[in-house]
Amino acid sequence: MSTDSPVRVRFAPSPTGRFHIGSARTALYNYLIAQQTGGQFLLRIEDTDEKRLDPTAEHEIMDSLRWLGLPWDEGPDVGGPHSPYRQSERLALYAVRAQELVNGGHAYPCFCSPERLSQLRQQQQRSKQPPRYDGHCRRLEPGESAGRVASGESHVIRFKTPKDGQTQAIDLLRGQITVDNQTIDDYVLVKSNGVPVYHLAAMVDDHEMQISHVLRGSEWLPTFPLHVLIYQAFGWDQPVWVHLSVFLNPSGKGKLSKRQSGTGQDVHAVYITDMRQLGYLPEAINNWTALMGWSFDDKSEFFPIDELIDKFSLAKLKPSPAAVNFSKLDHFNGLHLRALPPAELTDRLLPWFEAAGLPVERERLTRIVPIIQDRIRTLDEAVEMAGFFFADQVSPEPNDLLGKNMDQAQSAAALTKALTVIQSQESIQAEPLETELRALADELGLSAGQLFGMLRVAVTGQRVSPPLLETMEIEGKASVVDRLERAVAALTAA
Length: 494
Known about the structure:
Blueprint: E1 8-11, H1 21-37, E2 40-43, H2 57-68, H3 91-103, E3 107-110, H4 114-126, H5 142-150, E4 156-159, E5 166-171, E6 175-180, E7 188-190, H6 198-208, E8 213-217, H7 224-234, E9 240-244, E10 247-248, H8 272-277, H9 282-290, H10 305-311, E11 322-323, H11 326-339, H12 342-355, H13 362-372, H14 379-386, H15 408-423, H16 430-444, H17 448-460, H18 468-475, H19 477-493
Parallel strand pairs: 1-2, 8-9, 10-11
Antiparallel strand pairs: 3-4, 4-7, 5-6
């Protein structure tokens, strides 16, 4: 299914933990369908779970969404016609709606103590019955319930689930889901402190905010029929319900663990902030997550955000779980790095070199970018590969300076000859210098690989570097001569 009409969609995270790739994908899909239809993308903070609130989470959510390039049209910081957009600031509205359900016979106050409920659960466990409320307070006369509420007796409000018949809930990806009402619990809608739970607050907000399509995680499928019943109790038109596929661990077994970045093959970053710190691009993360649950066809894989907006459709969403392939993230990051204009990549790399404490110069980095752009997979790799350009000197170990199958004397002699060739140049130009160095290798009876390998370590201090001749040209004659002299001295002294 796709829609030509402008949609109103929302991303409604609970600020109880860090912002991970599952949430990022949900936000992305909502954003894409809003952009595609000329609709609105709302950010709503569902902060009614006081015990689990993380004071840093809301900031991380917003910061991550902005970094991913997913701005919202309405939300806590930008306002909108349905303010406020934090549920903790909408409690009065939920109280009114809860009382409507009670007055209409669709909900009731429950005065059962925690001790009674605990005993009930234990009895049900012993009897191997499914745990659910036994309806004790459901049978109270409305007048008695109202009197006890008026007297200030502690209570919650439960939904009065019909005990006969069936509820049919329509999910866009899974079709019709039919559930016998007798299997649905009388869920708590409002806690004893007057704070609503998700089942009430989210349904009320989606209606009040005129949400047309609810794209959310599949963890809500078990209570999906309850949410349909709540809509029906209020007499509201339902949104289009879309429960997105679940992410599995890379092995394909079990729901993706929210493990932080670390070392080892089985530990990966799943939080957006960590991925950002590891040098991944927001474009790559969006591309990667978009394809875990959706595809345009069986061959297209590279999607900048404008193409995702153009090609995304609800009709091509997949309900089946997706194993997270972190190698594909590296692949997509490489694709998007290579697609960046060199000037833009320079801008993105500057902070990485500065954070490493290197005296980076933008003009010089601009010259370096073209020779590393095809060789890095993440932004942080650029510092490891090209940091030597901004070092006063490099100090490789003498053993690293040895040519393949060569001793110290032979290596020092070869580098001395190369030094003479380079000193004879007015300036270093990659192509003519390569011709002369290859001729020198032939003269010395060496392979080009032997000579260039020694030069690479002497000039860069590392065995892996950008292309050697281009590196030497950027480094400049004076610096290359200085580094080769130091290399020869190190070999001679060893």
